[in-house]
């Protein structure tokens, strides 16, 4: 479809920080805006800053019992019982406040602010290739920050897709900025995230105000597979990301290229039969999730034109 | 300077995982343990003169990939804490410190190992640093100089902790001699190949120096630039909530060991104000924006740099 789709205005917008309690940019931004929200105020929409996992933020840990950003499964959200893991309880609370997921009452947009130890720069994460509002938004943001690059990661993989905090909303967007160590607040990373969000809110304000966004194309990196570290019989990693791959997020990995370096110096090569684009290379939080990096393929998506439905 | 002679270094400990999420040392010690009898101890025919203990200092924290379980292990080696009677309520790391003291010490006694090398990582851009309380009979500067001549992949600095060594709280103070080997920048919970390589080279070259020393080599004297830690600075914080209201200024971030002069930017607040260094003395920043120090109220340390001469050394002739 290449016409202009008519979509409802996005009046209820939330900005989540602290989904992971040790990813400090979002925590600092949401903390700031909870005290003084002037910067995120826009005409025609309510923008609500929200600390998603306050106990984890308090402990400066990724999570208390279980990863909140994997907890929004239908089973968890509907589970009735006592002694639930903290994050499952929290997921149910968040679903009540900002959802229910899938219902007309759910928030229009949730931005979820994350950091990564990987050298991903500014990355926007989408969960669907058919959300034309989101596609237009990322297109707008990419243009607004140019020549600085903002990559778009699409994870709609049937097996590798996961139930994110932001998926409660009709239009979920992940903002991932790195590299930043867990538990560290870097000024440049903080300001980058702030800038992306500023443009995102500008977009929504323009859209709600009647601006028409013409059909366009968006280049995305679509997740195709995840790759674990070589491990020994005890489950410990037996190799590291190769120095030639380290920090090379979004760059092509060709068959035969170095992928891992064993502790004794030997190289393990990428043996796939086509070029892929790795990202989330050496993310600290993914060692326990059996992931050294994720492989993506470049794709160009078509975004329909959109215009707000006049009420 | 006159040549100093010393007894050979026959027992050396290489410790990793003192902080369970500083992964270079964890994997290095595991690799050394795997290679036991293998390449880490190759001698090329000669009898091995040094026995190397490979120690995973805080196994529970390593297992959970956390800095510590209940208390920072690397603050548990004061004489007071080492002699506290341990009961069921005693914090895990205090008990563990006493176990390590029995294994590698006792601290201050003739049974203590000759040298403790404790492996650490930092999120700060510090390259490879030796951190020590004392010159320990000049062994530290000599090993440092040996590494400096061979390692070109990253800058190296020698850091001296201020204060009397009688109040030393860290693991390396258990040995007769000791230093921390700190390599960064690396996020906690991550192992980077380049950082691991540098640390591996550091440990390999240290053992190489020790074997040559024990074999009778005379090492000429020299001079080393020493950074002595003088004072620490915290982040600006909200007086009510204590949460930080500014972070390290972009002009200071990643610029460890670059002289900070009065008036230079220190912090940039979330509302855009620059806070500048108001001290009178230009000092060298280090441990700038180390993740683990946020909870200790430290945004950076400041150090004075002096040049220290060290004498030639040689093993005592006729010693065992």
Automatic annotation (TrEMBL), chain A:
SUPFAM superfamilies tied to this protein: Zn-dependent exopeptidases
EC code: 3.5.1.15
Pfam (any one): AstE_AspA_hybrid
Binding site for Zn(2+): 20, 23, 114
Family matches, as InterPro entries: AspA/AstE_fam, Aspartoacylase, AstE_AspA_cat, Aste_AspA_hybrid_dom
Cofactor note: Binds 1 zinc ion per subunit.
Major site of localization recorded for this protein: cytoplasm
Residue ranges annotated for the Succinylglutamate desuccinylase/Aspartoacylase catalytic domain, each copy included: 11-204
Keywords of this entry: Cytoplasm, Hydrolase, Metal-binding, Nucleus, Zinc
Listed GO MF terms: aspartoacylase activity; hydrolase activity, acting on ester bonds; metal ion binding
Residues forming the catalytic site: 176 (proton donor/acceptor)
Entry superkingdom: Eukaryota
Subcellular localization(s) per the UniProt record: Cytoplasm; Nucleus
Binding residue positions for substrate: 69-70, 162-166
Domain AstE/AspA barrel-sandwich hybrid: 217-298
Cofactor: Zn(2+)
UniProt binding sites for N-acetyl-L-aspartate: 62, 176, 286
HAMAP family xrefs: Aspartoacylase
Family of the protein in this entry: Belongs to the AspA/AstE family. Aspartoacylase subfamily.
Protein name: Aspartoacylase
Organism: Scleropages formosus
From TrEMBL, chain B:
Coiled-coil positions: none
InterPro entries xref list: AspA/AstE_fam, Aspartoacylase, AstE_AspA_cat, Aste_AspA_hybrid_dom
GO CC, alphabetical: apical plasma membrane; cytosol
Membrane topology field: Peripheral membrane protein
Residue positions binding Zn(2+): 19, 22, 120
EC number(s) stated in the UniProt entry for this protein: 3.5.1.114
Top-level enzyme category: hydrolase
NCBIfam families: PRK02259.1
Catalytic activities: an N-acyl-aromatic L-alpha-amino acid + H2O = an aromatic L-alpha-amino acid + a carboxylate; an N-acetyl-L-cysteine-S-conjugate + H2O = an S-substituted L-cysteine + acetate
Required cofactor names: Zn(2+)
Active site per database record: 182 (proton donor/acceptor)
Domain AstE/AspA barrel-sandwich hybrid: 223-304
Domain Succinylglutamate desuccinylase/Aspartoacylase catalytic: 9-208
Record localization: Apical cell membrane; Cytoplasm
Family under the similarity heading: Belongs to the AspA/AstE family. Aspartoacylase subfamily.
One GO molecular-function entry: hydrolase activity, acting on ester bonds
Cofactor binding summary note: Binds 1 zinc ion per subunit.
Domain of life from the UniProt record: Eukaryota
Primary localisation category: membrane
Protein name as it appears in the record: N-acyl-aromatic-L-amino acid amidohydrolase
Keywords carried by this UniProt record: Cell membrane, Cytoplasm, Hydrolase, Membrane, Metal-binding, Zinc
């Amino acid at each position: 479809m290449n016409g202009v789709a008519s979509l409802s205005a996005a009046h209820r917008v939330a900005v989540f920080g602290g989904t992971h309690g040790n990813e400090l940019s979002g925590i600092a931004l949401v903390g700031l805006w909870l005290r003084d929200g002037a910067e995120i105020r826009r005409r025609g929409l309510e923008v609500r800053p929200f600390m998603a996992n306050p106990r984890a933020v308090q402990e400066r840990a990724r999570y208390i019992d279980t990863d909140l950003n994997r907890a929004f499964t239908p089973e968890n959200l509907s589970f009735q019982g006592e002694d639930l893991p903290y994050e499952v309880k929290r997921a149910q609370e968040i679903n009540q406040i900002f959802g229910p997921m899938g219902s007309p009452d759910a928030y229009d947009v949730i931005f979820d602010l994350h950091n990564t130890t990987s050298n991903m720069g500014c990355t926007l994460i989408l969960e669907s290739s058919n959300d034309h509002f989101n596609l237009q938004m990322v297109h707008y943001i990419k243009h607004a920050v140019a020549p600085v690059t903002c990559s778009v990661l699409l994870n709609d993989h049937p097996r590798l897709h996961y139930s994110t905090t932001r998926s409660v909303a009709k239009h979920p967007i992940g903002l991932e900025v790195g590299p930043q160590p867990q538990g560290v607040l870097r000024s440049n990373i903080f300001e980058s995230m702030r800038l992306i969000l500023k443009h995102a809110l500008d977009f929504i304000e323009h859209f709600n105000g009647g601006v028409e966004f013409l059909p366009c194309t968006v280049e995305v990196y679509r997740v195709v597979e995840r790759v674990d570290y070589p491990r020994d019989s005890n489950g410990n990693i037996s190799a590291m990301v190769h120095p030639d791959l380290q920090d090379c997020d979004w760059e092509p990995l060709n068959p035969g290229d170095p992928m891992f370096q064993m502790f004794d110096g030997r190289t393990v090569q990428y043996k796939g039969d086509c070029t892929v684009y790795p990202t989330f290379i050496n993310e600290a939080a993914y060692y326990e999730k059996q992931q050294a990096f994720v492989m993506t393929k470049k794709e160009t998506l078509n975004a329909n034109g959109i215009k707000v439905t006049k009420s | 300077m006159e040549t100093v002679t010393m007894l050979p270094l026959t027992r050396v400990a290489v410790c990793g995982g003192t902080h369970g999420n500083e992964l270079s040392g964890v994997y290095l010690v595991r690799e050394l343990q795997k290679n036991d009898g293998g390449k880490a101890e190759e001698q090329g025919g000669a009898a091995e003169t040094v026995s190397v203990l490979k120690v995973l200092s805080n196994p529970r924290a390593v297992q959970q990939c956390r800095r510590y379980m209940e208390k920072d292990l690397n603050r548990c080696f004061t004489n007071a804490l080492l002699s506290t009677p341990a009961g069921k309520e005693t914090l895990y790391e205090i008990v563990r410190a006493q176990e390590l003291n029995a294994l590698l010490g006792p601290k201050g006694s003739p049974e203590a190992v000759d040298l403790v090398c404790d492996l650490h990582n930092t999120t700060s851009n510090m390259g490879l640093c030796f951190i020590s309380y004392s010159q320990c009979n000049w062994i530290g500067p000599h090993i440092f100089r040996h590494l400096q001549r061979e390692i070109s992949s990253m800058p190296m600095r020698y850091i001296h902790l201020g204060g009397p060594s009688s109040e030393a709280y860290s693991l390396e103070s258990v040995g007769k001699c000791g230093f921390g080997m700190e390599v960064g920048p690396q996020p906690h919970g991550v192992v980077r190949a380049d950082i691991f390589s540098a640390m591996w080279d550091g440990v390999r070259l240290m053992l190489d120096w020790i074997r040559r020393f024990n074999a009778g080599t005379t090492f000429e004297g020299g001079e080393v630039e020493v950074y002595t830690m003088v004072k620490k600075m915290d982040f600006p914080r909200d007086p009510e909530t204590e949460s930080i209201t500014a972070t390290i200024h972009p002009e200071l971030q990643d610029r460890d060991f670059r002289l900070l002069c009065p008036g230079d930017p220190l912090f940039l607040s979330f509302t855009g104000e620059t806070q500048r260094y108001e001290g009178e003395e230009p000092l060298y920043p280090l441990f700038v924006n180390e993740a683990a120090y946020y909870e200790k109220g430290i945004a950076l340390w400041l150090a004075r740099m002096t040049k220290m001469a060290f004498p030639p050394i040689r093993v005592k002739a006729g010693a065992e």
